[in-house]
């Protein structure tokens, strides 16, 4: 797999024994969902609104907002401007996972 110049797709078997496409990066990492390529960058857990900032190797980002009172998670994402968006995380616009990704 080290010869892959860009992301490629292979097929694997999911837990229900169905064939599913899986994305493989140029470094051989298998991605099974939209957030696998991201790593945690910042964490703010000081209040009941908790924020987790994630970046990938291309600078794309998402911020996950956890509302511990409501028991919910919401997401904001972008391709640039992570630092400014992290700074304004408490006033950002957040969506459900399926609306963000």
Structure, explained:
The protein has two helices and seven strands; from the N terminus they run βββββββαα. With 101 residues, it is mainly beta. The protein has two domains: 1-32, no CATH class; 33-100. The strands form two sheets. Strands 4-5-6-7 form a four-stranded antiparallel β-sheet. It has a three-stranded antiparallel β-sheet with strand order 1-2-3, with no helix packed on it. The longest helix has 6 residues, at 82-87. It is globular, with a radius of gyration of 16 Å. The chain starts with 7 loop residues before the first strand and ends with a helix. Residues 1-5 have low confidence and may be disordered.
What attributes characterize this protein structure?
41% strand, globular
In short:
This protein has 101 residues and is mostly beta strands. Helices cover 10% and strands 41% of the residues.
Described by the principal axes of the CA atoms, the overall outline is globular
Distance between the termini: 27 Å
Question: What is the helical fraction, as a range of percent?
Answer: under 10%
Determine Rg (CA atoms, Å): 16 Å
**How many helical elements?**
2
| Sequence of secondary-structure elements | EEEEEEEHH
Spatial order of the strands forming the largest sheet: 4-5-6-7
| Biggest sheet architecture | 4 strands, antiparallel
Q: What class, by secondary structure content? A: mainly beta
Number of separate strands:
7
Tally of discrete structural domains: 2
Kindly state the mean pLDDT as a whole number? Answer: 80
Which stretches of 5+ consecutive residues score pLDDT under 50? Answer: 1-5
Question: Which percent band covers the strand fraction?
Answer: 35-45%
